Amino acid sequence: MKIPTDNSPDYHDAEQHAAALLAETDILRSMVPAIATARAVLAYGADRLKRALALAVSDAKAALYRPSEKAPSFAALESHALASTAYRDAVDALQASEEAAERTSAEWQARLCKIDALRTVVALERAKAQML
Q1: What are the distances in angstroms from CA 122 to CA 21, 22, 24, 91, 128?
Q2: What is the pLDDT of residue 5?
């Protein structure tokens, strides 16, 4: 077996894999705030949707309620809120933020897999170099 030297392809591949591992680790570190935000968005998406509906219902109550009349039923308020453009806009914004959070989470997972693969390659190259 040939011992890797500065000019051999094995030596440069090992250096390239180690450099790629460091680069991926730096990218992963820079993604920490984004993944924290993404996890919060995904964890509390249902709560944010309920909050948007509650806000739309309170807006509907303000629009429909007249002091001289009997207060509208909750079902009427909810159906009015669900049909409002403000609620639809809020739902669209929530869906967009959840999609962005899912993309960020998927990118995070892909980078973690890539780092694991690079760690394995670097470890195998080190073991190979020690065997030579």
Answers
A1: 9, 11, 13, 46, 10
A2: 47
